[in-house]
Design goal:
716 residues, alpha+beta, Hypothetical protein af1432, Beta Polymerase, domain 2, Alpha-Beta Plaits, five-stranded mixed sheet, 26 helices, 20 strands, 48% helix, 16% strand, globular
């Protein structure tokens, strides 16, 4: 244990520079506790296991994390590997240390195999752990970083699995909470495992390019220092090569070779104040030619992870383009360490730093998304897509800045302001002008949301939004809406089936219904009705089960009318795209699990084989006086001549009817067929349209399309 003791002595030296004696003693105590707990345990490399937690603590020490975090780093595997209970750690150390160790241990218990359910469980535990103490993820990132540094001792397949997790999950999280130093190293190490050949070639190309430019890069650095000094600006200038995977991503995104990627090499200037940042920017733009479109002010409007800096691109000596970042020392520490910067974990009385406050808001947002998302795949997708947004900044009418991912729409904006505003959004103004809800927003715009008293969320909104917050809230609302509609529709279906037995739903004794629900393994009548409405349980089967469950005298069957549909049943009734039924058509309903009912024409060839099967189909009829629009398809045969399509469109337009779709077949001889999908209210309306079209010059025939067979070319 001599080497391990030596390592804790080295760690202690660095900790003394910022940690008080009580915290320092706690960390040392945690080390000896871990060394004892892991005694006789070894890593795959052959090193004593305790070297790993010490290395994790050393990583955290570089970020000047507090004593509880470093103690937790020392102890993060003792619950899992040594069976030491959380309660014991609470007594030996404190509650915070025990909670941190427990949080990290719970994350370690689940190995992400790529299966959606396992990923979802992992993410849910991660979000829960972070919401209770965000230091959990900081410790976990340090743990993952050391594992990546020692990955070479594992089998190749395991190296690739861990690297994939790292590049998809851990690196984006590190970026999201502003820990760029860890983020860059995690990406590079994962990239080198997943794409070793590509990484090697790219690194050699970068090294070659950099070596050839050493003199000129040194000249640029010297020139910048001189210009700052001439203008009485005190600051440091450091040149650095961009990280490997970052360069690769830019090449792939822009579709450019390395030679055309401008900012492979960057200079960082740190000065004393924000005012000095802008002065330094002016000095640089005077000394070198700025590249158009490359200036970004992240000081005035920080990134979502609180990153602040001025970015500019300039053309330097020999036409060499470089990127220059200008920031204060404090901004630089935040840029490198993110949430871990200035931690010295506080009592609840002290306020969080901006980056810590933003990180907490992000975690709280994840918790809200988790509550609104029940499907595991959806949750995984939402988390992954929302980790690293490319931000835009827009304003509320009162001047509040709202940060959004690039590509966001007014609907995203509305949900970011407040979930209720999002759900009730019916329109918007951008820079005081009315605009569609689907238009992508741009930085600097002022957005005003117009709301309605009634929730407006629609399935089509899911195609318009990019933020995870909006997507999860819309899905949750639609699920609730669908559930409500399903219950209403299911009740309608069941009552119709019970009517065939001369029985009404409300007349069934509660005790009998309760027994039936138990036998069906359904929690409530509402759940049963919802399942019927969604097509999961056929209503006639349930009606028969009800009849068997009650002790009524056998009632005489009576003839009942078919189930009536109004055309306004919303999400639970769909209309067969094959035959496009409209009011007035003889129709039949097909039960489909999870989709409710699909209405077909009785003559539809897709429904004929199963039409008489009561388990799959049921007779239905249209209600009287249906007010709504339906789609009908016509095939129009005409003479092939210029302007015929315009004439037909004009004839339909004169009847105030909309054409939803149109396509033409290749002419045969001097004839051509046009297939039109037209908005109609019913059969009478369709008949009038067909009469008008038949009167149009050069129209030979007009027929309705009832099935896919009718779409076959009729011209012979």
């Amino acid at each position: 244990m001599v080497a391990e003791v030596s390592s804790i002595k080295d760690l202690t030296k660095s900790l003394k520079t910022y940690m008080d004696s009580d915290q320092l003693e706690q960390v040392k105590k945690a080390f000896f506790f871990a060394a004892n707990a892991h005694s006789g345990q070894y890593r795959v490399s052959g090193d004593p296991y305790v070297t790993h937690p010490v290395a994790v603590a050393e990583i955290l020490a570089k970020f000047k994390m507090d004593g509880d975090s470093l103690s937790a780093a020392m102890l993060h595997d003792v619950i899992e590997d040594s069976g030491i209970p959380k309660s014991f750690l609470s007594k030996e150390f404190n509650k915070d240390v025990a909670n941190l160790v427990d949080g990290v241990s719970k994350l370690d218990k689940i190995k992400i195999s790529g299966k959606e359910d396992e990923q979802a469980e992992y993410f849910q535990k991660m979000v829960l752990a972070m919401s209770q103490d965000i230091r959990v993820i900081v410790v976990k990132l340090a743990d993952r970083l050391h594992n990546m540094r020692t990955l070479n001792h594992l089998a190749i397949a395991k190296q690739k699995r861990i690297s994939k997790e790292t590049i998809e999950i851990y690196a984006p999280i590190a970026h999201r909470i502003g820990m760029h130093q860890i983020y860059r190293e995690l990406e590079d190490r994962a990239f080198e495992v997943l794409n070793p050949h590509r990484a090697t070639i790219l690194r050699k190309a970068i090294d070659t390019a950099t070596k050839g430019r050493k003199k000129i890069l040194s000249k640029i650095e010297k020139s910048i220092k001189e210009k700052l000094k001439e203008n009485n600006l005190i600051g440091d200038v450091v040149g650095r090569q961009k990280h490997l995977y970052g360069i690769f991503k830019k090449m792939r995104k822009q579709g450019k070779p390395l030679s055309e990627v401008l900012d492979v090499y960057a200079f960082k200037i740190t000065v004393e104040s924000a005012m000095d940042c802008y002065k330094a920017l002016g000095v640089l733009h005077n000394a070198f030619s700025p590249i158009e479109g490359r200036f970004k002010d992240y000081i005035a409007i920080p990134k979502s992870n609180s990153y602040q800096s001025l970015h500019t691109g300039v053309i330097t000596f020999d036409g060499l383009p470089v990127e220059i970042q200008i920031r204060t020392n404090e901004m630089d520490e935040l840029a490198e360490f993110g949430i871990a910067a200035h931690w010295l974990y506080k009592s609840g009385e002290e306020k969080d730093s901006p980056v810590q406050a933003r990180a907490r808001r992000w975690v709280n947002n994840l918790v809200e998304i988790q509550k609104n998302t029940e499907n595991s795949r959806d949750f995984v997708e939402i988390i992954k897509t929302g980790l690293v947004p490319n931000e835009i900044y827009v304003f509320t009418p009162k001047g509040r800045i709202i940060e959004l991912p690039k590509g966001s729409t007014p609907i995203d904006f509305a949900f970011m302001v407040h979930s209720d505003i999002g759900l009730h959004c019916r329109g918007c103004r951008i820079n005081k002008n009315l605009a569609p809800l689907s238009v992508p927003l741009e930085s600097g715009q002022t957005v005003e949301i117009i709301t309605d008293d009634i929730p407006q969320a629609q399935p089509s909104w899911l195609e318009m939004v990019v933020t995870s917050r909006a997507r999860s809230a819309i899905r949750h609302q639609l699920k609730n809406l669908r559930s409500s509609e399903a219950r209403k529709f299911g009740k309608k279906l069941l009552e119709n089936s019970l009517a065939q037995h001369n029985l009404k739903l409300r007349s069934i004794p509660k005790s009998r219904m309760s027994k039936l629900l138990d036998s069906l393994k359904v929690n409530s009548l509402n759940d049963l009705l919802q399942q019927i409405g969604l097509g999961i349980r056929p209503s006639n089967f349930v009606a028969n089960q009800i009849m068997q469950a009650i002790d009524f005298d056998s009632p005489s069957l009576i003839e009942s009318s078919n189930l009536q549909i109004s055309g306004s049943e919303g999400l639970l009734v769909n209309y067969g795209p094959c035959c496009k039924p409209i009011p007035g058509d003889p129709v039949v309903a097909h039960f489909t699990a999870g989709r409710g009912m699909v209405i077909h024409q009785e003559r539809c060839k897709n429904i004929l084989p199963i039409k008489d099967d009561p388990a799959l189909c049921a007779p239905v009829q249209w209600e009287d006086n249906i007010d709504g629009n339906f789609s009908a398809e016509l095939v129009v045969t005409t003479q092939d001549r210029p302007g015929i399509l315009a004439e037909i469109s004009s004839a339909i337009s004169e009847m105030n009817k909309n054409i939803e779709g149109i396509r033409g077949e290749a002419p045969v001889g001097n004839q051509v067929q046009l297939f039109l999908i037209i908005e109609v209210s019913g059969r009478d309306d369709l008949a009038n349209i067909m009469k008008a079209l038949k009167k149009t010059k050069n129209v030979i025939s007009v027929n309705r399309v009832h099935s896919s067979e009718d779409r076959k070319l009729r011209i012979r």
